[in-house]
Hints:
Chain A is mainly α. In chain A, 77% of the residues lie in helices and 0% in strands. Chain A has three domains: 3-295 and 403-428, Sodium/glucose cotransporter; 313-388; 490-572, no CATH class. Chain A is built from 23 helices and no strands. In chain A, helix 1 (3-23) runs parallel beside helix 18, helix 3 (42-53) crosses helix 13 and helix 3 packs across helix 18. Chain B has one helix and no strands.
Amino acid sequence: MSTADWIVLGFALLAMTAYGIWRGRGSRSVESFLLADRSLGWGTVALSIMATQASAITFTSTPGQAFADGMRFLQFYFGLPLAMVILSITAVPKFHRLGVYSAYEYLEHRFDAKMRLLGTALFLLSRGLATGMTIYAPSLVLSVMLNVDVRITSVIIGGIVIIVTATGGVKAVNHTHVLQLSIIMAGMLAAGGVLLALLPDGVSVTDALSLAGATGKLNTIDFRFDLENRYTFWSGLIGGMFVALAYFGTDQSQVQRYLTGKSIAQSRLALLFNGVAKVPMQFFMLLLGVLVYVFFLFAEPPLFFNPAAAAELKATEHGEAFEALEGEFRQAVGQRREAAEGFVRARHEGASGSLSDARSLLVSADQAVENLRRDASAMIGAYLPAADSSDTNYIFLTFVLTYLPVGLIGLIFACIFAASLSSSSGELSALATISIIDVYRRFVRRDATDRHYLHASRLFMALWGLYGIAFAQYASRLGSLIEAVNILGSLFYGTMLGIFLLAFYGRSVGGTATFIGAIAGEVVVVTCFLWTPIAWLWYNVIGCAVVVGVALLWTVTTQGREPSSRASEGRI
Amino acid sequence: MDERPPRGADNEPPPFLGSWRNLYAGVIILLVVIIIGVYAFSRFFS
Lengths: 572, 46
């Protein structure tokens, strides 16, 4: 990166830190620090919701995923708007009316202390482990691309997050999210504009999209019903809706965002805006990846986009084989370029016969390139067990570093840092809130002053941040454990959703029945994960259904022996 | 903990489309339009 890019990046990081400190000043009570006095308008809350869910990896891997796999990932988001409508009707008014700080505090109102403890434990386990990854994953990608030690990038990300969250609390977090999302959107729009400008002479936008269509990259919707296929219309609509219900309805990192809304209406509008904006935003991100793919039909891509892994493999005894593969790849890429040019010429001439031939040529040339990329990935996986054999996180950034103009490179890297900071700060503030409200204030120190809890909240914010940084320092030594950590976190959502569905609608179901249902749900989800080929999007549906089914069954068989809910709960 | 008086009553109307029911319907209709648009887009270029 040039000096100008470093200046742009440094200025953006300083601006985000200073803006967060400035907007977060004046937090003098726990409610102010953890919920921004429930005073924010829907615009700020909506952008904060979007910024929290958009991690740095989202912005590096989404275009990369479209490059490698086309746009079918878009279907994952089709259920999200439906979930936003459901949560606006159910969760938002219930949480607001009780004035809770956390989603799990609600569980004690509705059931009992053990359900609150279960919800808190599941959240701290899953989100606590994930927050280390939220800092580590982008730190690793940025360290490779910027050629800086991963410990430095993780300290920068973690350090800024600690400064902003521990000084200004959630008000600082939410307002900084607005700035961060603005930087992200500006950077991505600029990258899209430059991509279009970089298309070769004689290749129009419609030519580019036709090239992408011919090679199957615009495979947006698949109506087949297939439980083993990760992304179909039905898994996105049903499974995606359940994921979104669980994430936005039971995960404190999102619940906390809309609890800061100044009224039920403002929180609802924020969720609905997210529902309306998310699918088009993801469409644009994926289209960016498709355009990067089209760009590389005419330019020479590397065989493997992670430069550090490729260099490491070349330094081993298998380096020669990898270099031979690179030679074959260069040839295949040349043949694909000729096929792409032939396809564009045939399109312009308009003869359907020659266009069909040109398409067949292009598809087979593209397949040859993809096969070689798969071989390279397999080599990396086989000979470098500690390295990630997927290079999707590096595709977009490789394009940025190699082809974008000076200044814009700094802006794009600022985007990646901004996305990392926004998701980390959202998670950190949620973890601190749960630690203080659902653990410390509930079970450790019940009668301290508001000032005491305020100081404790700041301390918990800092401690969770330090934990995230420490995790990132040692994560590279964890090897395959990292993947296990990631998977573990994704196995609790269905159970949590089942618990909250019973809390909202299962008026006759009590805490013990829900507790037993939750244990059964978790056992079934883990069983599905370990011993079935069912795609993970369906785990949430299955887990939720088992929790509800078992709890209802338990309630029916033990009717009259367990109170259905707390006395106050009948009115909720 | 007692219920707090709601800061925004349930019947506070949304700033657009007149009622929450209409707004929810609007979000779902927009989703359908987006899905049809995306499908048409990919069919056109495939």
